[in-house]
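chain below, 136 aa
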Amino acid sequence: MPARAYWQGQIRLALVSIPVEIYSATKSGASISFKQIHEPTGKPIHYEKVVTGIGPIDTDEIMKGYEVEKGEFVLLEQDEIDAVKLESKKTLELTQFVDAHEIDVLYYEKPYFVVPADDLAEEAFIVLREALRRTK
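prediction:
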């Protein structure tokens, strides 16, 4: 099975944006997942969305809410959530370069590698990579 990108977005340096994908550089043996199975029939277990005291509900009756106090929620519409999303969620903005010894070892714990997202991004990505190599 081919590797799947951990993250897709863009690297931005000044006015240049390069579409990229980030992949984990290591494999984790802990990525096996199991499904719960009903033993007599061999069929997978599914979960219903229910409200205590009411029972099963329709998906269109579900909203998102933020709990401000125990049992007290601020309800939010999807357009309200979208309005506060940050652009940077899909953009890695390069603002400065530092020497390798200035990077906290915490950031070396789980390595990743970055690749251009497509053929069109490859040339710009190579230019950026080579510029980084030359400025050691």
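The beta strands are 7-13, 16-24, 37-38, 43-44, 50-51, 55-56, 64-69, 72-76, 91-93, 112-116. The mean pLDDT is 87.
thats it, cya
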